Amino acid sequence: MRTHTRARRWAFVLLSGVVAAAVVYVFGPAGPDLVASLAVGSVVVLMFSVALIVSNERVKQVLIDLLSLLP
Q1: CA–CA distance from 45 to each of 5, 6, 13, 40 (Å)?
Q2: pLDDT of 10-42, one tens digit each?
Q3: Distance (Å, rounded) from C-alpha 24 to C-alpha 56?
Q4: Which end of the chain lies in a sparser environment, N or C, as judged by fewer CB atoms within 10 Å?
Q5: Which distant-in-sequence residues (6+ apart) come within 8 Å of 54 by Cβ?
Q6: pLDDT (tens digit per residue) in 46-63
Q7: CA atoms within a 13 Å half-sphere pointing along the CA-CB vector of 21
Q8: Residue 67's pLDDT band (boundaries 50, 70, 90)?
Q9: DSSP code per residue over 1-68
Q10: What is the pLDDT of residue 33?
């Protein structure tokens, strides 16, 4: 059961990145730009991954703050 929950969490992380990339690709201010879409999707995946993996709240907040400075 625990493995199933872990797989769902990672599926959510990946799906969030794909959705963010798709939204930026379709509705981005500069029109369809694949590189910008992939960059945003990657940052979203990294932010959710940090939130999922890191247990220390201070470290988690610092890492998420640093990642929010990316595109």
Answers
A1: 18, 15, 6, 9
A2: 999 999 999 999 998 888 777 677 888 888 899
A3: 31
A4: N
A5: 60, 63
A6: 989 998 899 999 999 998
A7: 18
A8: confident
A9: -HHHHHHHHHHHHHHHHHHHHHHHHHH-TTS--HHHHHHHHHHHHHHHHHHHH---HHHHHHHHHHHT
A10: 79
Tell the residue number behind the tokens 């990316």, with chain if given. 70
Handedness of CA 32, 35, 36, 41 (dihedral sign): positive
Q: Which long-range contacts (CB under 8 A, 24 or more apart) does 32-39 make?
A: 36/71, 39/70, 39/71
Residue that has been written with the tokens 């995946």 in this structure: 45
Taking a C-beta distance cutoff of 8 angstroms, is the pair 45, 33 a contact? Answer: no
